[in-house]
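Attaching the record inline, Q. Sequence:
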Amino acid sequence: MNTIRPFLCRLRGNEGSILVITFWALSFLSFFAVTIGFMARQKMALAEKLDQRAKLRLVAAAGAQKGLLELKKPDLDPNVDSFKEPWAQSSGLVDAGAGDPFFKVTIIDEERKININTAGPDVLNRFFKIVLDCSDSDAESLSSAIIDWRDEDSIVLAQGAEDSYYEGLKYPYECKDAKFDIIDELLLVRGITATIYRDIKDHVTPYGSGAVNVNTASRVVLLSLGLNEKLADKILAFRNGEDALEGTEDDRYFSNVAGIASELGRDVKLEQEDSVEMLSNLVAGGFIGVTSSNFMITSRAGYEYKKGAVRIECIFERIQTESVSGYSGKLKYWRIDHENQ
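Structure, as predicted:
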C-alpha cells in the first residue's frame, strides 16, 4: 500500500487553501491600505484648507485694520468729507506683502446712501422705482413694509405689514417695530427677496443721522431725494472737476450745507427747471449734508494662484478727537465670509 500519495494529495490541497487565504488576505490589506491612504489624504486636504482659511482670516483682518488706520487719519477739512480725503484716496489699496496671500481694501462712505431708518415714503418710493424699475404700486408696497418694520406702532399702513402678516408665515416671527440695526434685516421685510436685496443693498444703509452727503452721493441717491436729472448731473459734474472723473486730483466739493446752491451756481448755470427750490428744501429739512461719520471697510484676502478667499466687512463710526489731529471711533458691525472654499 502506497502511503505517500494520499499525503501528497492532502499537502497539495492545503497548499491551494493557503494560496486562496493568502490572496484574500492580501486583497483585504490592499483595500485597507487604499482606504487608509484615501482618508489620510482627505484629512491632509482638510488640514491644509483649514490652515489656508486661518491665514486668510488673519490677512483679511490685517486689511481691515489698515482701513481703520486710514479712517483715523486727519482730514483735509474736518467739516467736510469728499473723495479728496485720505480715506477715499486709499480705497482700493492692495498689499501683497512678501508674497501670498494678499489683501485688497475698499472704504465706502455709508452716508452717501439712503438711510432706511429715516427716509420717508416719497424718497423710498422714488428709490425703488429707479433701482428696480417697478410700478408705483410695487414701490409703495415695499416702502410701506419697510416703514411698518421700523416704526414703533402696530398700525398697518395701506400696503404695509405688521405682526398679523409675519406671524402667519411658515416660519413665523414678529415685526420688529424698531429701527434697523444691520442691512441684512431687510431680508426679513415682506417683499424683499434675495434678488431685490442684492439690487438695493449698495444704495441703502441703517447708519448715520439720515442726512445724505452730497459730496459723495451717487446719481441714484440724488434722484431718489427728489432732484431732477439735470440738477443731479450738474452736481456730479461740479464734483468731478475738469476731467469729469471721480476721485482724481481736480475733484471739487461743497464746503458747507447752506452754500451748496451758491457754490454750484458759481460753476454752472442754474435754471428754473433745475428745481433749486427743491435743493434748498432738502438743505432746510436736514436731508443732505457735506460730512459723514459712518464708513464701510471691506477687506478681501486671497491667493494669486490658489482658490479661496476671505472677505471681512465692517462699519466704523468716526468720532472727532479733542486735539483735531485725527479720529477715534467704534466698530458697529463686523462680518466674515468665506468664498470658494
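The mean pLDDT is 85. The longest helix spans residues 4-72.

More tomorrow.
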